[in-house]
Amino acid sequence: MSDNVNFYVQIPTTLSVLSLSNLPDGTGNQDGCPSGSFGIKISIRYQVKDQAGGLIQTDKMEPQETVKNEVLNGTSLGDPVPTFTDIGPSRITGTSQFTDSGGQFLDAPYGNCQPFAISSYTFTQVIRVLASNQNPYVLKTNNVTLTGTTGGTGTISNGGDVQSSRP
Amino acid sequence: MKSHVVILLALILFAGIVGVSQTTSDLQKKYGPPDSEGRYIVRPGIGLIATVDDAGTMRDITIGPISSNPKSAAQPAEKPTVMKAEVAETILSEVLPVSKRGRYKGTGNAEFGCTSVDHMEYEKVVISIRNRCAEQGGGTYSMNIHWKG
């Protein structure tokens, strides 16, 4: 007879996009871009998954991000979020410091609005979670391109699971 | 008399040209010599880093709180520090008054969760102000002045 017991330890490994929506036009607290402006702001709901693709259903993970290499219309503007910083809570309802009990979280607002045309706006976002033991796990890198060539319109893409356009 | 007027006009023109460009000696006059890390201390706990090109022309100025821990020693849970928004605004006007920025073109805004960046575009510079949202305590993480061209 053996006393050995095998435990399955879930390691935060990837993020999957559950849903994505445009924030409405306007200047209110829950809005995205002002009417007529160039660009787009969105809201992304993520699910944290383990090394086998299973859901990690705990509200003890703290999503954080860095955002670097910001370039607007050919002008390099540096690193908007150079060190890991909590994604939530933000001004958008539903965002929070920690994941919900299902291991999901909302990343919002997310994007850029300008008073002039955006031929190209690019940045690199790295998302990680801090587990309850404070160990950090990097889950996703988004290399994002955003455009807004005419007033009231915009597109955003990471070349994969984050894609949206306005209107 | 005529030659005096010409000299006076030349001096005014020269003063105007010097006035529009920020230099490291301007910064030294205002804030004293840089510290051992190359930062000008603009307020207690707030540093300014200036980047000049090979010709000595100012390209970028970044202003922000001086971290109590160097990056390599920072713990994963450590939160970045901020300046009070009104202090940041005062420093920005001090370092580069509105009159030296050229024509104002407009302000855009990028947001990444709780971090927002106001991009204020002027004829000569782009000023980026990184702010923390009110939901996490507010304040300004840093400001960057980028000279165009």
- CATH domain fold name of chain A: Immunoglobulin-like
Number of domains of chain A: 1
- The helix fraction of chain B, in percent, is 25-40%
Rg result of chain A = 18 Å
**N/C terminus separation of chain B:** 40 Å
Q: How many distinct beta strands of chain B? A: 7
Task: Note the total helix count of chain A.
Answer: 0
Residues in helices of chain A, as a percent range? under 10%
CATH class of chain A: Mainly Beta
Q: Structural class, judged by helices and strands of chain A?
A: mainly beta
Oligomer: heterodimer
Strand adjacency order, main sheet of chain B: 1-2-3-7-6-5-4
Description:
The complex is a heterodimer of chains A (167) and B (149). By secondary structure, chain A is mostly beta strands. Helix content of chain A is 0%, strand content 52%. Chain A has strands spanning 14-22, 38-49, 62-72, 75-78, 81-86, 104-114, 118-130, 136-148, 154-157, 163-166. In chain A, strand 7 and strand 8 (136-148) form a beta hairpin. The radius of gyration of chain A is 18 Å and the shape is elongated. Chain A starts with 13 loop residues before the first strand and ends with a strand. By secondary structure, chain B is of the alpha+beta class. Chain B has one domain. Chain B has helices at 2-20, 24-31, 85-95; strands at residues 40-43, 46-52, 58-65, 104-112, 115-122, 125-132, 140-147. In chain B, strands 1-2-3-7-6-5-4 form a 7-stranded antiparallel beta sheet, covered by helices on one side. The termini of chain B are far apart. The chains are: A mainly beta (167), B alpha+beta (149). At the A-B interface, strand 3, strand 4, strand 5, strand 6 and strand 7 of A face strand 4, strand 5 and strand 6 of B.
